[in-house]
Design a protein that fits this description.
InterPro entries: FucosylTrfase_pln, GDP-Fuc_O-FucTrfase. Keywords: Carbohydrate metabolism, Fucose metabolism, Glycosyltransferase, Membrane, Transferase, Transmembrane, Transmembrane helix. This protein is of the alpha/beta class. Helices cover 46% and strands 7% of the residues. The strands form three sheets. It has a five-stranded parallel β-sheet, with helices on one face. The longest helix is centred in the N-terminal third of the chain and has 39 residues.
Length: 584
């Protein structure tokens, strides 16, 4: 028995000695095979294979879309694959075809008197703006025009320090106040502070005007009070002036917005540094106003597939706005009022022909979902920049505690970019779109969200080529060409048609040559019609003088329509109903 046991032990030892070399040989062979596969396999971003985007929680792959995709698996449905590189496109990606035929023109006509000739003594207008930087910018612009309509001296506008943004900056800390006053001296008399009255601080009478108040509205509602009180302050002054004004008033708007409102030197210097650092990285770059912050999503009432967690988080934020009603996310998205996700923005740029080597500057606050939400966009466009990545904390220290100053830096970079992409139709998007039209029609891409939402929803049921073809068709009229938007449509700050002049003779010659050689030149009429029909323009009717209230007086119609503020003043002084109005 002992001999048999020793024999078995000897056999096991020999087997062990034989197995160890065999295992080593097999392991080495597997390792070499793995290395060869790694070396020979195509990179996810090289030119030989499709790019697979990571999916994330806030993608538009909603529960419905997931069910449809599962149901169609194995039925031969085309698989959606984003190709690497850039697609072929018939247009120049970085310039506007007909931009050279258009230029900004905002000089006053000979019929527009100088300020010194029409400004009445002891008539002071103050305004308190509201909202963020760009909403306040519209208020400042319109305040200058309102002062001109009223023949009043304007006191430098007050900026909003109490709203959601909680920025304590004064006008002079954002804008060059001396330049503002001097540039507009021929149009409106502007002073920095309200003068003392009988040696004491003058407290102006406070009031509000309805939204989209026109010239007649200001003359009937505001002028009576101003004539008696001599100094009034218009509160919450945002979009309180009509889109439709006489041409000289519209041109004054442009002189204010595009010339008089200049940022302070520290803001300009830092903004120019950011632009230079983008130019050092690439000859051309895109600026993207992503606008995918939690407050934006909550305000929009949209849903992005994040389940109960998303509904709860955004629902709490939405309660900040007491006037907002419960929304229908599907209806809001069908109406084109939902911002695209970062992934959808990336797909849009790819479909328009931009390659993964393009550098993108992102103007954005805190993105909802953080890096997980941004991952698909960064996978498509890895050259991803922001002011925080381009500048040190020390360089941004004097700006970072002030939301308006940080927004001003983004404004400068977006304005100087070769292509500006807006993800919503908010204040910054509107103002920059109008400014870029005025200064040479630099391309401004805005999603045709009404048409694109269904395309994004169904993209797993088509090939990339089908998606790209449909996308380019839907985006006609939304890429920043001249005359894409009809004059008078939308907010004037977005479409300042009265301030854009055309070199019609030069354009006619080029159009003639293009037709001769069978080439298409410019924006087609059907593209303009499509943009006008599909865009989310604010086409609400002008708010009437009444706005639900009685007019302050009962003057003859011919005075209201044809008279000026000076003509009108005399009929106010003996109005018996005025004292009752002023006592409110």
């Amino acid at each position: 028995m002992a001999f048999h046991r020793r024999r078995l032990q000897y056999q096991y030892k020999n087997r062990g000695r034989l197995l160890i070399p065999a295992i080593s040989v097999i392991s080495a062979a597997l390792l070499v095979l793995f290395v060869l596969i790694s070396l020979l396999a195509p990179s996810p971003t090289d030119g030989n294979g499709p790019l697979r985007l990571p999916r994330h929680r806030s993608s538009t792959v909603t529960e419905t879309r997931n069910k449809d995709r599962t149901k169609d698996e194995g039925k031969g449905v085309p698989k959606f694959r984003v190709p690497p590189g850039r697609g072929a496109y018939h247009r120049d990606l970085w310039t506007s075809t007909n931009a050279k035929f258009y230029h900004g023109c905002s000089d006053a006509s000979s019929k527009f008197p100088k300020a010194e000739a029409i400004t009445r003594p002891n008539r002071y207008l103050l305004v308190a703006t509201s909202g963020g930087l760009n909403q306040q910018r519209t208020g400042i612009t319109d305040a200058v025009v309102a002062a001109r309509i009223l023949n009043a001296t304007l006191v430098v506008p007050k900026l909003d320090k109490k709203s959601f943004w909680k920025d304590s900056s004064n006008f002079s800390e954002i804008f060059n106040v001396d330049w503002f006053i001097s540039y507009l001296a021929k149009d409106v008399r502007i002073i920095k502070e309200l003068p003392l009255r009988r040696g004491h601080q003058w407290i102006p009478h406070s009031m509000r005007v309805p939204r989209k108040c026109n010239e007649r509205c200001y003359i009937t509602r505001v002028l009576p009070v101003l004539s008696k009180k001599q100094a009034i302050q218009l509160n919450k002054f945002d979009y309180r002036l009509s889109n439709r004004l006489e041409t000289d008033f519209q041109k004054l708007r442009c002189r204010v917005n595009y010339h008089a409102l200049r940022f302070t030197n520290p803001i300009i210097t830092m903004g120019e540094k950011l632009v230079q650092r983008m130019r050092m990285r690439s000859k051309h770059f895109i600026a993207l106003h992503l606008r995918f912050e939690p407050d934006m999503l909550a305000f929009s009432g949209c849903y992005y597939g994040g389940g109960e967690k998303e509904r709860t988080e955004l629902g709490k934020i939405r309660k900040r706005w007491k006037t907002l009603h419960t929304s229908n996310p599907d209806k809001v998205r069908r109406q084109g009022r939902c911002p695209l996700t970062p992934e959808e923005v990336g797909l849009m740029l790819k479909a328009l022909g931009y390659g993964s080597d393009v550098h993108i500057y992102v103007a954005s606050g805190e993105v909802y979902g953080g890096e997980e939400t941004l991952a698909p966009l960064k996978a498509l466009f890895p050259n991803f920049h922001s002011k925080e990545s381009l500048a040190s904390k020390e360089e941004l220290e004097s700006f970072s505690a002030f939301s308006s100053r940080m927004a001003a830096l983004d404004f400068i970079v977006c304005d100087e970019s070769d292509v500006f992409v807006t993800n919503n139709n908010g204040n910054m998007a509107k103002i920059l779109a109008g400014r870029r039209r005025y200064f040479g029609h630099k391309p401004t891409i805005r999603p045709n969200a009404k048409k694109l939402y269904r395309l994004f929803l169904d993209r797993d049921n088509m090939t990339w080529e089908e998606f790209e073809s449909k996308f380019r068709k839907f985006q006609r009229g939304f890429i920043g060409e001249p005359k894409e938007v009809r004059p008078g449509r939308g907010e004037f700050h977005e479409n300042p048609a009265s301030c854009i002049c055309e070199d019609s003779d030069a354009k006619a010659k080029v159009d003639s040559l293009s037709r001769k050689f069978g080439k298409e030149n410019g924006v087609r009429k059907e593209d303009v019609d499509t943009a006008a029909d599909d865009e989310n323009m604010d086409d609400e009717p002008e708010v009437s003088d009444g706005d639900g209230d009685e007019d302050p007086d009962d003057l003859p119609t011919n005075i209201l329509l044809n008279g000026t503020a000076s003509d009108y003043e005399a009929s106010l002084l003996d109005n018996p109903e005025l004292d009752e109005l002023l006592s409110d």
